[in-house]
Specification:
about 35% helix, 5-stranded mixed sheet, GspL_cyto_dom, about 25% strand, Nucleotidyltransferase, domain 5, alpha+beta, Gyrase A, domain 2, T2SS_protein-GspL, ATPase_NBD, 3 domains, 17 strands
């Protein structure tokens, strides 16, 4: 069910027209008692000026901007004081309605005082059908209206005669007029509730959608957690496999038949036993040979690697100063060197040194 509520004009107050679901029409004066029905307000014809023009159809904002430029050129009233709305009506030129900002604000405030928030506000002249040629005339809610393809206005004798001239004028019968009003009410060709006066949409919470989104979020979280758990388990199994493999490789380095309790510790013990204490035999002897090569005129006459990692070496030198140079070279390599008593015989200097890691 839809109720047309005709806004008051200078000559009459509120009037209404109710169209039932079965097409039955009832009318009355004043503001009717409303239930859960759709309300379309109708602006008085004398309050809304109509124009038609070719406007861009790419977006409503572009169409309104172009319409405001056209209205600014055709109106003496500052454009800032006018509300411009653009509609759609068939093909070709689009209707443009111009209403004072104050009038729009006053209508909506008055309607709100009656507890009414209209679904749309329609200029009265657009209730008449758009003729193919000439003009059509009809009386709607006590107001006489006239319309052509590109005009629409209140029927006033002198003004109508000037505008219509010799063009044909058809007076609509009641059935044709009722059908046209029903069509315009169902699909308004132009709604004044645009821009700053657009109807506010009520935001409702779709709890079903909220629950579905929550379940979807929980599922995504569960899948993500499962992926992380699988990855952690994979890394853990891989680490265990590597540890088992390392233990197996470590066992091959132990003495055959040795009881394995701690592979790492037992390998360290065997390595220490193989290389010797301290830095080990090989490392210590290699450092001593390097020092001898770096000290021309010196040679080793004996080597004795002790169980505590100390290396005793016999040194022969061509000059008295060379044992001291060798000692300093070994100390520079990071060893602690203790020199014994060196003797000179047959043009050679001989003696012993003790080399160990500090």
């Amino acid at each position: 069910m839809t109720t047309l509520l005709f806004l008051p004009s200078a000559t009459q107050g509120y009037r209404w027209r109710r169209i039932g679901d079965d097409g039955a029409v009832t009318e009355g004066e004043g503001v009717p008692a409303l239930a859960d029905e759709r309300v379309v307000a109708v602006a008085p014809a004398e309050s809304a000026t109509l124009h038609w023009a070719d406007l861009p159809a790419r977006s409503p904002a572009q169409a309104v901007a172009a319409a405001r430029l056209l209205v600014a050129e055709a109106s003496a009233t500052p454009i800032a004081e006018l509300h411009v709305a653009v509609g759609t009506e068939g093909e070709g030129e689009r209707p443009i309605a111009v209403v004072g900002m104050g009038a729009m604000a006053g209508w909506l405030t008055d309607l709100a005082g009656h507890g009414i928030d209209p679904a749309a506000i329609l200029p009265a002249a657009l209730l008449l059908p758009r003729p193919d040629d000439g003009y059509v005339r009809g009386i709607v809610a006590g107001q006489a209206l006239v319309r052509s393809r590109t005009t629409g206005f209140a029927d006033e004798a002198r003004l109508t005669d000037v505008i219509v001239g010799d063009a044909p004028v058809e007076t609509l019968d009641r059935a044709t007029l009722d059908d046209a009003i029903a069509d315009a009410t169902a699909t308004p060709p132009l709604d004044l509730r645009q821009g700053p006066f657009a109807r506010r949409r009520r935001i409702g919470i779709d709890w079903g959608l909220v629950r579905r989104l929550a379940l979807l979020g929980a599922a995504i979280l569960a899948v993500t957690l499962a992926i992380d758990l699988v990855r952690i388990a994979k890394y853990s199994f891989g680490a265990d496999a590597l540890e088992v493999r390392a233990d197996a490789l470590g066992r091959t380095g132990l003495a055959r038949g040795e009881t394995v309790t701690d592979v790492d510790r037992q390998l360290d013990e065997r390595l220490s036993g193989v290389r010797g204490p301290g830095l080990g035999f090989s490392t210590t002897v290699a450092a001593v040979y390097a020092a001898v090569r770096a000290t021309p005129g010196t040679e080793l006459t004996s080597l004795d690697f002790q169980s505590n990692g100390t290396l005793r070496i016999g040194v022969g030198a061509a000059r008295e100063s060379l044992p001291t140079d060798l000692k300093r070279t070994l100390e520079a390599a990071g060893f602690t060197v203790t020199a014994g008593t060196f003797q000179s015989a047959n043009g050679r200097v001989t003696g012993e040194m003790t080399v160990q890691r500090p």
